[in-house]
């Protein structure tokens, strides 16, 4: 079926016992068994819950994988991936510019289990190839990156990773959602999302999901989901399912507003630099056009100094100052002190996450109102 149809229907049959069109919230911890070993496919809700299963089946279809698993947060989903792929003595490669929490997980927790990490500029394929070792088990790429919107050639990285049978390419697709980018079709082995962002889309739930290409990986991740237990609740699963039904329409609106806002910012003399892959001046524009079907609603722009960023952020009214992104409402943030505070200052500077950088998650409001808000703040 087409993406819009799948977004609404995949994994979601009307409830057989009542005919309910909306998948019910199965708020239960356990399921009655007729006799020992005789049940309807559900035993205990950490292992399997019908509401969560509907979301997992839906996401597997939207990302084109064999299976999906939903977790309590994007970070819980990433943790499960590290439990699947990395053991003591292994090596992993990660894009140098990823969400600060991803770096924190790898550097402050997983590294202490005896896993060695190399951070590379994954937009440069030679750097990725040069970092590969015989014991490299995971290459983790975020594209576009948070917050600088750098674009990595996923197919190019997958060719490098594919040469080593025991290594897997993981792509964080949170910024694009499967509506604009499908990493498995570009050669990735698994995709992770913070469903907190565009998939849920309404800033009212925290969650994560992993979709996998290989059945053996999927079976192992299902084991980890049950054994480690960081599952998404039935209510949150239902919220995300409901959010996904309008994902295509919301993403189109984010994309449309994103382009207008980026062009407005480029013209504004207070703005030193704008990072948005939809602008022809963006270094990854041509690649973004090839591997994505839209550019999304994430923009970063540099105001030149911390003082200017602080003043500007205290004067916006309609744009809400806050962490997170991907909701229907426009959110604005300061990466250096908020989302990327856990990245050491020297590393932030090297990456270009300056103290004057502001990140905008463009919502789906009337774009003229958003521009008026920025205009008033600039004045
Ligand atoms: C790109 C990206 N990946 C992963 C995460 C982590 O997701 P969560 O906050 O749901 O744990 C975030 C959160 O901001 C993110 O922006």
Describe this structure in words.
This protein has 379 residues and is α/β, with parallel strands linked by helices. Helix content is 37%, strand content 15%. The protein has 14 helices and twelve strands. The protein has a seven-stranded mixed β-sheet, sandwiched between helices. Helix 1 runs antiparallel to helix 2. The longest helix has 21 residues. It binds pyridoxal-5'-phosphate. Pyridoxal-5'-phosphate binds next to helix 3 and helix 4.
Topology:
Layout: H1 3-9, H2 50-63, E1 67-71, H3 74-85, E2 91-95, H4 100-108, E3 116-120, H5 125-131, E4 136-142, H6 154-162, E5 168-172, H7 177-180, E6 190-194, E7 208-212, H8 215-228, H9 234-244, H10 247-267, E8 273-275, H11 285-291, E9 298-302, H12 306-313, E10 320-321, E11 331-333, H13 345-351, E12 357-361, H14 367-378
Helix pairs in contact: 1-2, 2-9, 3-8
The protein binds pyridoxal-5'-phosphate.
Euclidean distance between termini CA atoms: 49 Å
Shape: globular
Derived from helix and strand composition plus strand pairing, the structural class reads alpha/beta
If you compute it from the alpha carbons, what radius of gyration comes out, rounded to the nearest whole angstrom? 21 Å
Enumerate how many helices there are, as a single number: 14
State the share of residues found in helices, binned by percent.
25-40%
Bound molecules: pyridoxal-5'-phosphate
């Amino acid at each position: 079926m087409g993406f819009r149809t799948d977004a609404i229907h995949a994994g979601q049959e009307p409830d057989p016992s009542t005919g309910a069109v909306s998948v019910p919230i199965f708020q239960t911890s356990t399921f009655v068994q007729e006799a020992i070993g005789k049940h309807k496919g559900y035993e205990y809700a950490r292992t399997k819950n019908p509401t969560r299963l509907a979301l997992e089946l839906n996401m597997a279809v939207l990302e084109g994988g064999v299976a999906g698993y939903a977790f309590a947060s994007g970070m819980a989903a990433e943790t499960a991936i590290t439990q699947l792929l990395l053991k003591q003595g292994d090596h992993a490669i990660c894009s140098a510019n990823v969400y600060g929490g991803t770096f924190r997980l790898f550097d402050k927790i997983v590294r202490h289990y005896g896993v060695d990490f190399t951070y590379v500029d994954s937009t440069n394929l030679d750097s990725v190839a040069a970092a590969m070792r015989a014991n490299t088990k995971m290459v983790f790429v975020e594209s576009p990156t948070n917050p600088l919107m750098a674009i990595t050639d996923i197919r190019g990285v997958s060719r490098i990773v594919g040469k080593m049978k025991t290594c897997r390419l993981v792509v964080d697709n949170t910024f694009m959602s499967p509506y604009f980018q499908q990493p498995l079709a570009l050669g990735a082995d698994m995709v992770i999302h913070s469903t907190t962002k565009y998939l849920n889309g309404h800033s009212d739930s925290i969650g994560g999901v992993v979709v996998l290409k290989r059945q053996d990986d999927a079976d192992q991740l299902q084991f980890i989901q049950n054994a480690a237990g960081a599952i998404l609740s039935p209510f949150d699963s239902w919220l995300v399912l409901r959010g996904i039904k309008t994902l295509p329409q919301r993403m189109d609106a984010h994309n449309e507003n994103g382009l207008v806002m980026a062009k407005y910012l480029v013209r504004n003399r207070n703005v030193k630099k704008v990072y948005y892959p939809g602008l022809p001046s963006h270094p990854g524009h041509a690649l973004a056009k090839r591997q994505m079907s839209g550019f999304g609603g994430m923009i970063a722009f540099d105001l030149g100094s911390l003082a200017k960023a602080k003043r500007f952020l205290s004067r916006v009214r309609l744009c809400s100052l806050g962490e997170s992104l991907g909701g229907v409402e426009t959110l604005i943030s300061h990466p250096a002190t908020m989302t990327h505070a856990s990245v050491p200052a020297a590393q932030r500077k090297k990456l270009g996450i300056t103290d004057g950088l502001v990140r905008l998650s463009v919502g789906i409001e009337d774009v003229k109102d958003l521009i008026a808000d920025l205009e008033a703040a600039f004045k």
